[in-house]
Every structure is written in structure tokens, then in C-alpha cells.
Amino acid sequence: MRKAYDLIGIAQRAGKATSGTMAVQRSLKGSRACLLIISEDVSENTREVLVRASHKHQVPHIILGDSHVLGHSIGKPFRVALTIDDSGLADAIVKAVKSADM
């Protein structure tokens, strides 16, 4: 799983990550997002809103870690949601998560 968090950090440093629920919603609406990442401890209401938006805009989503670990991976105190705005990085993160789950 460490590889997925490292790739999220790379996306942040490259300017290809958007974090925070409002910014994530704008990223989804603006068709910039290639992957939505939601923390496990996000509120049910926020999760429903974000997942619905990701389905509407045909952006895949994954649930990954808690908000503190997710935030730490991008150098922030905590984050409940973020988008990856680069298709190559998004694909690499999904592959890293799938390989860690096996």
C-alpha cells in the first residue's frame, strides 16, 4: 500500500492532485479528474455526494486509508477526498492498490 501513497505524493508535487471536498467537486465537474480517492472515515453524506458525482462524470473512485494517512501522503494535516488529475498516475495508483489487496 505504501507505493499507492508514494504515487499520491508524486501527483501532489507534480500539481496533478486536487484535495478537499469542494475542490474535488470542482475537479470532477471540470473534467480534470481521472481518479477520485476517498478516505475510509469520510462522513456517509459526503461519501454519497462524491461517489454520485464520480459516477455522473464517469470518474472511477477508490476508498483508501483514513483521512490522516491520506492527508500525510500529500503533505497536509488530513484530507477526506482528493482527485488525481493525470491518467497515467491514476492508473498506477489503481494498480498499486489492487496489487496490495491481493
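Next protein, fold it too.
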Amino acid sequence: MKKLIALIMSFAMFTASAAFAAQPSDEVVNELVKYNIISDPSDLRPDDNITRAELVKILCEAACCDLEDYSAQPFTDVTPDHWAFRYISAGYMNNMISGYGDGTFRPEQNVTEGEIRTMIVSLLGYASRTEDMGEWPLGYLAYAKYLGVTDSTDVDVDAPVTRGEAMQMIYNALDAPMMELQTSYWFGEERSVIVVYDGKDQPLKTLRTILDAKK
């Protein structure tokens, strides 16, 4: 485990100086349209920054969230009349997102590179694996690289994310094996067990397999 963490961290450090804007290819756009992750390919605006609310909508579409199941208000600044209310509620309840210390989510604020990597790694289920890898967002950056989420994108942690970069990262995440932290009991004691659905010891489970099953 320590060797794996060291290897992942080295990947993150090695790529920290890379900087180029992602322009989504036809393949990226076509795949995201096929799965209804993006709905209007005529309005991509790949160079525009993406907001936190817009990103959560995309993540929920990628995760096949049934919005009818979500009506809780987790943040003070996202009320039921906000267009992304149910997406943000679903994102919070599925541990994809968190807010700020003042109880807000700031839905119209631009997403940073560190934030999008955190959200995608959390969506894939690896958040618990980042806890021993230093201060935020080091562990998330490392796992995003390890899982291939950051391929062909910028890794400047504090920079705002463009819509094109977000599309590329979501596309990259489609085939990453998902992970789950399960609770089991051994002689009456509660234990946490990490399950990686990589198609080896466990059946393959990815965002793509979930999306395909819903079609």
C-alpha cells in the first residue's frame, strides 16, 4: 500500500507543471452525447469556465442519479427554486460534493482544477483512499492521475476549469474501475473492507457499465 501511494504521488508531482487547455475531440463529445451527459452538442463553448452547479449536473448525469429521489437542502444558498437544486442535493447525498465552512455551496462560482478532481475521484469512490496522502487536494490529485482522469488536461490546481477540460475528464473517468468501502463484521467487530470493481477479484463496475445498464 505504501509503495502504491508513493507511486501515485510521484505521478502527481511529475505532471504538476503541465499546462494546456483541453479541446474535446469528436469522440469525447459523441460519447458524452450518447450517454446524455451533455445534451446540446451545438452549445459546447469549450473555452468557457464551468461553474460548480454545471459540473454537478454533469456528474449526476454520468452517475445516472434519479433526481426524483432527492429533495433535501444541504446548502443554505441552494434553495428549491434553483435550477440545479436536485442535482446538488443528489451530488451531496452521493458523497460527490461538499460545501464550504459557512454552509454554502456557491453554485455559480467557477470550479478549480483541484475541486473537479476531488469531485470525480469522490464519484468513483476513492475519497477514503486519499486521507493519508497529505493536505487537500494532494491525495485527490494523485488518484485522479492514477485513474487516468487527468489525461490530456491541465493540472494547475488553482486555475478555473474550462468546459472542454471538464468534458475530457468526465470522458476519461467513464472506464475507471469504481471503488467502494464496505462494512463487514468479524467476530462481532465492525471492519471496513475496500472493494475495487476492476474485473479481477470483483466484477467490473465503471460509470460506463452503469450507463450501459440504464440504456
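About the second fold: The beta strands are 178-186, 189-197.
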